[in-house]
Amino acid sequence: MRAMVYRGPYKIRVEEKDVPRIEHPNDAIVRVTLAAICGSDLHLYHGMMPDTRIGTTFGHEFIGVVEEVGSSVQRLTRGDRVMVPFNVYCGSCYFCARGLYSNCHNVNPNATAVGGIYGYSHTTGGYDGGQAEYVRVPFADVGPQIIPDWMSDEDAVLLTDAVATGYFGAQLGEIAEGDTVVVLGAGPVGLYAARSAWLMGAGRVIVIDHLDYRLAKARDFAYAETLNFTEVDDVVVWMKKATDYLGADVVIDAAGAEADGSFVQQVTSTKLKLQGGSPVALNWAIDGARKGGTVAVVGAYGPIFSAVKFGDALNKGLTLRMNQTPVKRQWPRLFEHMQNGYLKPSDIVSHRIPLEHIADGYHLFSAKLDDCIKVLIEPGA
Fold first, then answer.
1. Which of 80, 124, 160, 174 could form a disulfide with 117 if both were Cys (CB 3.0 to 4.6 A apart)?
2. Looking at residue 304, what is its pLDDT?
3. Do 373 and 186 form a contact (C-beta atoms < 8 A)?
4. How do residues 297-324 score in pLDDT, each as one tens digit?
């Protein structure tokens, strides 16, 4: 089969790999019909995530058609059109029983923290991802879901991570009616978080980024106020002024490990790899939230040290909430919002690229060229 293959930082190409096979009776083999490039994939592409091995296939956002199932699989049959959450999870361990699918204890040798994630380094279990023609899906009775007839492929693929993660970020914020919510980062997750904040009762939503075209999308798609942080001397001071000098009730960090805004933090984290990610957005969130407010983190960070202002969070009495998204837990409510016309995930898609041109897709997305917001990958094109 043809698959995207990692060859080192900023080096990917499409190569022939063996078609995955059933390795366990609970497995399914899915023929990928649509995948996506996620902002988290860029952390791998840039060499930010530890233990990203040569030969790995990325891609944790994908949908497809079931080609083969293991002898124990009961819920799926050949020909089913399925959406697959980015979490690999068993469904029965201590954490899965509590809905913490992203923290499954049985799918990752490094499971003291995160569970399994498709195509996201050996830090998350070493599973090949869906930027390929075929993918092996473990625990096929637990994770995948048959796509409803009313749902388009483009909407379905975005629900496998980006939409669910943005919605989860807003959930973590525990937004009360009338709250002022600030979202840091106007990529796909930030856009969905901002849109979701309204669904949870926010009275005001502000999105902060440094790219004008993404901020324009935040105004159009998420109905948010916006700030280009390069146009102010101090983002935190601006946030305080915009909230009667109190700070935001809820701040959602949807930027994560490669947040811009500080040259020193960028060099030490993204260039020298001395931190698990640039803590710029997280520190802005801590400083910009009101005392007693909530900071929700859904932007991805690596597992090593980051210079975060934890003492300030303590002294302000902030609630810090974060996790990798338990994707399938978000789907029932998101399905309702979509059917009621409150959300159309594919409205943010900007580029559709054949698998053979995936290197161009990564370059477009990484360099923010051609007003790129979200790239879909078509294996069959």
1. 124
2. 54
3. no
4. 998 776 654 678 888 889 999 999 999 9
